[in-house]
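RESIDUES AND SHAPES:
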Amino acid sequence: MSATFHATLVFEREIAAAPKAVFAAFADPAARAQWGTPSDTAVIIYDDADFREGGLDHFRCGPKTSPNIHGVTQYLDIVPDRRVISSETLVVDGRRLCVSLTTLEVTPDGSKTRFKNTTQLASFIGEDMVKGFTTGTNASLDGLVRYFQK
């Protein structure tokens, strides 16, 4: 059994939309699957989505040809148009990859929104999970920014 690798990751974006619209794009699983996919070769499929405090999302993600990473998100705290706190577990082939606690903050900034994602990650497969999580989250948040540039 390998050691647990811990990391605190902070991602910030300025989004050209009002906080209400940004929050709605996160709350809607269809919109989230659209902007949240980190590349053209990847996919996010929500098998169940229940965006409410105590609610669970069950999803699969990974390459379009084989979305073999299974995830469960539990929503712990939701303040509409302001904040979401959730926990998440990622598993592949029955092996737990990581668990995380994430706080999303949506803050008005004139006609734009400051979006901040702070994730505390516990990786069970080493530092590579942290690197992959960082790359994927950055790509997803860049997708959120582009979502509002249409």
